[in-house]
Amino acid sequence: MASSDLDECIDAARLAARSAGFDPDTPHEQRGSSIRPNASYAFELSGLEDAPQLRDIEEALGRLDGVTARLVYPSATAWVTASEDLDPRRIIEVIESFGVTAEMSDSTLWRRAIGRRAAEHPLPRRGTRGMTGKMRRQRRDEEANLARERAAGFMRGAPRRLRTSQSDVLFTARDMVTPLRMWVSILLTVPVFALSYLPDLQFAGWQWVCLALATPVVLWCAFPFHRAMAGGVRRGMSALDGASSIAILASYLWSLCALVFTPTGDIGWHSPGGWLSVRGASEMELFFDVACGVTAMLLVGRNNSIRVRSYLLRDMELDRPDPDREFTVFRRNRTSDKVVKETLPVSEINRGHDVKINPGDVIPVDGDVVGGSCVLRRPLIDAREPLQAKVGSRVYAGTVVESGSIKVRVVRTGHATRWAAVHSWVEDASRRENVATMLSTRTAGMLIPAAYFIAFADFCLWFLITGNPNIAFSTAVAILAVVAPVALAISPAVAIRLGIEAAARNGIMLRDGETFRGLDDTDTIVFNRVGTLVTPQMVVETVTAEHGEDPDMVLRVAAALSMDSTHPLAKALVKASRESRDTRSRDSSMPVWVELTNHEITSDGDFKGRLAMTFEDEDGEERVEHLEAVLWRPTNLSRLQGRLAIAATSGGAPVIVRWKGKDRGVITLYDPAKPDAISAIERLEDMGIETVMLTRDTYPVARRFADFLGVSNVLAGIPSPSKPLAVRALRSQGATVTMVGDYTMMDALKGSDVGILYATEESVNTRLSKVEDAAEVVMLRNDVTAVPQLIELARRVSRIIDTNMFFAWAYNTIAIVLAVAGLLPPVGATLLMLGSSTFIEARSSRARRFPT
Predict the structure, then answer these.
(1) Which three-class secondary structure state does DSSP give residue 781?
(2) Do residues 787 and 507 touch, judged by C-beta distance below 8 A?
């Protein structure tokens, strides 16, 4: 066949393919799979120490074949582009080799899940033939945008250099303070100390041996401190270990110059030994022992210190549900309506599925137990919930099944679970504390320039007075070694972080460290009665009808008006009405059917509606009667009189039933106090805190209940819209108010100094992060004892912080004075500096203990 005929056949085939809606020039499949040369991933990072650490991680990822990475420090996110055949776990292993935890974001997991399904059922990419002009333009725009993003380096090209936060240079990078540097410095420092302090061991040329031993200590072992100092100088700031770095370098350079330019370097020269601050020799002395000693002790102290990082977040990562873990799932097929059993990864489990959980599994979803029973391991965030789960129990993601097997009907998955909401809250609190820590660190960093100035002035004065350069230099170095800005910086930070974590582990989420101060200053705690002091189960106590009215009719009308409400009061009325209907014989004076129309709930919480009541006489004939009815709660006794007024004040919480413009009866409801409410109130009163109960009930009812609990004061007869005003009125009188309430009291929580929110299912469903502006504290627990425990913890943390700050400032002042006076040798000054930091860390560890 001629080549021209072959070309004509190929063109005809292409034309036929286009006519069929398939563009042969558009690649669609290759070897049975879609062409996807690259895949993009987003990873959420935790455990980052500082921004410079990201550069090392990017370089390590860049060494993987076909991988480019861009890491963003403020959002703790890694954007990685890699070849499709590269296992993402390889990327995670590289990141975690730096001590950083990486987890694939939900959006990436969702894309991968969709991608797997698309690969199983690939669709051919069609050409543009037959498309409208608008669709063609849209495709061209998408391709152009993708090309621009690739050209800009979003998906390909060298990663852009990140701008380092100015606050990162204040702390020495902890990943560089390795045990290897510490042990090398110790091994090389010991012989330097022996030769410097024991004249009998000084052989000919010993000083040059000290130079050889000190050089790797000063240049390599102390490099983390020099790096931090250089970073601070480059940004016009003072690193916390900058003074120690200057002391090390100055001692080394002084000794090096003495060896090279003075007789100190002559073979056969001997040093008198002893602490340098009291040596009186006029010739130049060596300070290699200072350079090595300060380095070794700093490395030992930093390696063994309490690191300012969130241990709670690290522990939570261990209990994080694995999105790739597969579970047995039972779901109902929509077409056949049969239950289908299959194995799905966590990322593909949806609401309504039934998931089987076996012993040792981490529950991946929030849901209700619909089969089996089990014993749960005490969770990391202990909300004081029962550890025995059975049918009807609610279980939460992140909880480990100790023994037994259960089937859980999924209610929430992924980021909607309570575990994810708590994790997000703790991360936000940790982020806020990092910002607050940097503020205190900057304040502590101001001590470094002052130390430089004092050291320089001290050197000049001592040299002018004594004429001895060794003593002058020794006292100046001692000043640089003894100053302790780290102790000043961690005085509030460690105690606050440990306090927040101690509260979180016990089911109490704090927004930030400032909350401790607000709780410590609190002198008045206001409890909203409903949602905090009483259980959510209410029961009808009494039904009092006006003269000539039937109590059962009063109860049925009340139940009909509240039928659509989920409030505990409404549930109690409906339950009591059904019990009354079932126990009463048929009566023509009672309706056989009640239908509610035009239902309305007013701003005051009253239930209004139009009722269609169907009556049936003895002959079986039906008649329908329509009436307007209202169910309202009194705030005072001015609108009631007679037997209704007496009934409204003699029992529990009253509600009034009215129809046809007349009050027909009073129903009192009883909601029992929580088992620990009395002891919790007594504990708060013993702490000197005035307790207040805020309620809508009339004063006689509220006062009687408050006396039962031991509450000092009552704000009664206040409807929900007026409760924020009542809280602000207390503050205007000079009280420091902590408001305790549930999700219905958001506005009142905002009006207090500190808001404590009892987290219900409603607040979890709306995400805890959305309520943080209203509440400084979120209680996952349901007991009242958590409130006095939190106050005691706040007072302890505040005392620790105040004592730490006093000690840190007193230490720095006294230590600098002693160093200026020549009473501290440089090595001893370093020991004092590390001792001050260790003392503060040890005192701060008391914040871990949660009150019992």
Answers:
(1) coil
(2) no
> Do 736 and 521 contact (CB within 8 A), yes or no?
yes
**Rounded-to-integer distance, Cα 30 and Cα 36, Å:** 10
What domains can be seen in the chain, in order of their start residue? 26-122+138-151 (3.30.70.100), 169-297 (no CATH), 318-417 (2.70.150.10), 446-502+791-848 (no CATH), 508-534+673-780 (3.40.50.1000), 539-670 (3.40.1110.10)
Confidence of residue 6 (pLDDT cuts 50, 70, 90): low
| Residue ranges with strand state E in 47-136 | 68-72, 77-83, 101-104
Instruction: Give the up-direction half-sphere exposure of residue 60: CA atoms within 13 A in the CB hemisphere.
Output: 15
- For 131, the 3-state DSSP assignment is coil
CA distance 248 to 242: 10
Q: What region does 398 belong to: left with phi over 0, alpha with psi -120 to 50, or beta?
A: left
Tell me what pLDDT residue 693 has. Answer: 94
Tokens of 93: 């292993």
Q: Where are the alpha helices (DSSP H) in 467-583?
A: 469-482, 485-505, 514-521, 551-561, 568-583
Length in residues, the chain:
852
Say yes or no to pLDDT of 607 above 60.
Answer: yes
H helix or E strand, kind and range, residue 714? strand 713-715
- 543-557, 764-778, 827-841: segment of lowest average pLDDT: 764-778
Distances (CA, A) of 394 to 149, 410, 617, 645: 46, 10, 47, 42
Q: What is the DSSP letter of 218?
A: I
Residue among 119, 151, 138 at smallest CA distance from 31: 119
Q: How far apart are CA 236 and CA 229, in angstroms?
A: 10
Rounded to two decimals, what is the model's pTM? 0.70
Strands ordered across the beta sheet of 38-46 = 68-72, 77-83, 38-46, 101-104
Amino acid at 509: M
CA–CA dist 740, 775 (Å, integer) = 9
The whole-angstrom separation of Cα 167 and Cα 440 is 11
Q: In 592-705, where do the E strands start and end?
A: 593-601, 607-616, 622-632, 653-659, 662-670, 690-694
Report the distance separating Cα 290 and Cα 295, nearest Å: 8
* 556 contacts 722 by C-beta, under 8 angstroms: no
- Quote the CA–CA distance of 655 and 648 in Å, as a whole number: 8
The per-residue pLDDT for range 721-738, each reduced to its tens digit, is: 889 999 999 998 888 999
Nearest to 223, CA basis, from 254, 244, 204: 244
Pair 545, 756: CB distance under 8 Å: no
Cα separation, 440 vs 436, in Å, equals 7
User: pLDDT per residue over 653-671, tens digit each?
Assistant: 888 888 888 888 898 888 8
